[in-house]
Design brief:
single chain, alpha/beta, Rossmann fold, 8-stranded mixed sheet, 5-stranded antiparallel sheet, 13 helices, 22% strand, globular, binds iron/sulfur cluster, cell membrane, P-loop_NTPase
Length: 338
């Protein structure tokens, strides 16, 4: 498979009055053409910062992409070194991003038709009539009913789910090679969530667009992602394909995320699992495993030494001392409820 994106040793800091916050630390991953990748973790784990750095949407300063970080697009260009001029065409034409709340991205004073047409005229050089026809086609592609009428509607006249569909249509208007969706379904009810995820899956197959999905909810990616990367405190702690993460995960943090997904196929009527404690302060130097203060399997070595990455298969790896030959054996099935 052809690689469309290679992120290599990405380190991002934020310079604050309190000190340097090392928000992303040594993150590396590849994304192939037409592939879907989920970055999963709780708030503040660095997933959105990682995603925004791919489109260079971080405000620099206070953010700083550290020396040595590389974000290679299509095997040739390093996004970290892109000129401002190239970045303008890169965003939209090569990579698009959609956010949790479409109202923050849509202009409330313009109709949705005007907004999509504007993108088509600027990025694809279309004339007004051609852009209008294309806009209607795009709205139909994302399953907006009565598209010819809807183009005259303002964002506030649409439901939350429909606004997110409009954002997806706008993001796809220039046939980007990568679509980044940052918590696209968080503000929506469960039925609409499922419809939006199905729609993203259909569009990925139809246009061969690679998708990076950012979410705190492993449940959302269950039927969607080809590969999943679990992030904690600015690092990737486990990565694998869907089966490996859902059925063979070996990292205690991934277990905690899996245990916090509500399930219908169980008799268990206990309260939903909640992970105790808080993530570490990323201003302070970290010693040992960043998850150690919250991990019920933490051993002495976890407090002293950062875990090394262990490869379990070509696609599955994790950073945890439980993989060390001397570590006590933990039964995954017993840890996971249900
Ligand atoms: Fe827990 Fe230790 Fe593994 Fe960290 S390295 S997740 S503290 S067992």
């Amino acid at each position: 498979m052809d690689k469309i994106l290679e992120v290599k040793d990405l380190n991002i800091s934020f310079h604050t009055y309190a000190g340097e916050v090392k928000a992303v630390r040594g993150v590396s991953f590849d994304l192939n053409k037409g592939e879907s990748l989920a970055l999963v973790g709780e708030s503040g784990c660095g997933k959105t910062v990682t995603a925004k750095s791919i489109v260079r949407l971080l405000k620099e300063p206070p953010a700083e992409i550290k020396e040595g970080s590389k974000i290679i697009f299509n095997g040739k260009e390093d996004v970290v070194k892109m000129s401002k001029k190239r970045l303008r065409s890169f965003r939209g034409e090569d990579v698009s991003m959609i956010f949790q709340d479409p109202m923050t991205s849509l202009n409330p004073t313009m109709t949705i038709g005007q907004q999509i047409m504007e993108a088509l005229m600027i990025h694809k050089g279309m004339q007004k009539n051609e852009a209008k026809k294309e806009t209607i086609k795009l709205l139909e592609t994302v399953n907006i009913p009565n598209a010819e009428e809807r183009i005259n509607h303002y964002p506030h006249q649409l439901s939350g789910g429909m606004r997110q569909r409009v954002m997806i249509a706008m993001a796809l208007s220039c046939n980007p090679k990568i679509l980044i969706a940052d918590e696209p379904t968080t503000a929506l009810d469960v039925t609409i969530q499922a419809q939006i995820m199905d729609l993203l899956g259909e569009l990925k197959n139809k246009f061969n667009t690679a998708i990076i999905l950012i979410t705190h909810d492993l449940g959302v990616v269950a039927n969607f992602a080809d590969k999943i990367q679990v992030m904690y405190a600015g690092e990737i702690v486990e990565r694998g394909n869907r089966e490996e993460i859902f059925y063979k995960s070996m990292h205690p943090y991934t277990w905690a995320l899996l245990n916090s997904v509500p399930r219908l196929d169980t008799e268990n009527k206990e309260q939903l699992y909640a992970l105790r404690g808080t993530p570490p302060d990323l201003i302070l130097p970290l010693k040992g495993c960043a998850f150690s203060s919250r991990c019920e399997y933490a051993m002495e070595i976890c407090l002293e030494r950062k875990p090394v990455e262990t490869r379990l298969s070509n696609t599955h790896s994790l950073s945890c001392w439980l993989q060390h030959p001397d570590a006590p054996k933990v039964n995954r099935a017993e840890v996971l409820r249900g």
